[in-house]
Structures are given as structure tokens and as C-alpha cells.
Amino acid sequence: MKSILLLLIIMGSLFSCSAENDMNSEKPNTEKGQKADEWKLVKMSGSFKGSETTGSEMSWQETITLNPDGTFVKTRVQGNKEQKATGTYEYVTLSDGKYLELNHEVQSDLVASCSSATKELLRVEENDQLAGTWQMCDGPGLIYENTSH
């Protein structure tokens, strides 16, 4: 009886490790030698037609650097002022597609979110772009392109 119980405990441990590895499969690659991904804000849009701006015409310039260790740095330059935000990131799959989830260390103006003071979601588009979700609650539409290639 003890051997059956011991066997069940061992099998349960093996399966729980396997399930944990499956859940972490969407985490960033942390292998040595991996380069950071840099995403640059390339387009902003407002809530009315014809309100798109690009390049130096945008209200601010912004980059998101995704480090191989699962951390990010978001940098915004607006006029002569530079702001930075840091935290961790992971890719998540929701019912309507794949998203980049930025988990900011602290609440700041750089968190472009409708529902959280520290969590930001950007939809991963098929054309190697990220689309912010802030426009769903009257924030600007933000489009980022990967400049790491």
C-alpha cells in the first residue's frame, strides 16, 4: 500500500512539473547570446478619421526594448523630457489572439492601459507590428514596429 502511495506521489510530481513547463512556454527566451527586441512607435491615431500622425509629427517618440531575460524598458521622449518604465513581459494568448503583456514595476504615465495601473497589453499583429489596446477606452491608437531585424 505504501509503495502505491509513493508511486502516486512521484507521478503527481512529474506531471505537475510537466504542466508548469507547458504554462511557461510563452515566456521569453532566456538563452545566452539572444539579442533584445526593440519596438518603435511608428503611428498614433485619435478617435476621429484623419487623426493619424507618424514620425516626428507624433505627440511623443517611444521605444519598448524586450530583453532576453524577460524584462523590458519602455522609453518615451516628449519635447525635452525623457521618461522610462521597467518591468517584466510575457506573450499571452487570449480568445482573440496573441498579445504582449507588459507588467510595469510601478504605476506611471507610460502605462497605456484601460483596465490596470501597471499592466499593458499590445496585440501581436501578423505584419510584425504591435497594436496598443489603449484606444478601446479613448486613448490614442499606438502602432509599434520591430526594428531589431
Q: Describe the main β-sheet briefly.
A: 8 strands, antiparallel, barrel
Q: Can you tell me the CATH architecture?
A: Beta Barrel
Low-confidence stretches: 1-27
Please state the average pLDDT score: 82
Structural account:
The protein has 149 residues and is mainly beta. It has a single domain, classed as Lipocalin, CATH 2.40.128. Helices cover 15% and strands 43% of the residues. The chain is built from 1 helix and 9 strands; from the N terminus they run αβββββββββ. It has one helix at 2-23; strands spanning 37-45, 53-54, 61-66, 71-78, 81-94, 97-104, 119-125, 129-132, 141-146. It has an 8-stranded antiparallel β-barrel.
Task: Summarize this structure as a short list of keywords or feature phrases.
1 helix, Lipocalin, globular, 15% helix, single chain, 149 residues, 43% strand, mainly beta, eight-stranded antiparallel β-barrel, 9 strands
In short:
15% of the residues lie in helices and 43% in strands.
What topology emerges from the helices and strands here?
Elements: H1 2-23, E1 37-45, E2 53-54, E3 61-66, E4 71-78, E5 81-94, E6 97-104, E7 119-125, E8 129-132, E9 141-146
Antiparallel strand pairs: 1-2, 1-3, 1-9, 3-4, 4-5, 5-6, 6-7, 7-8, 8-9
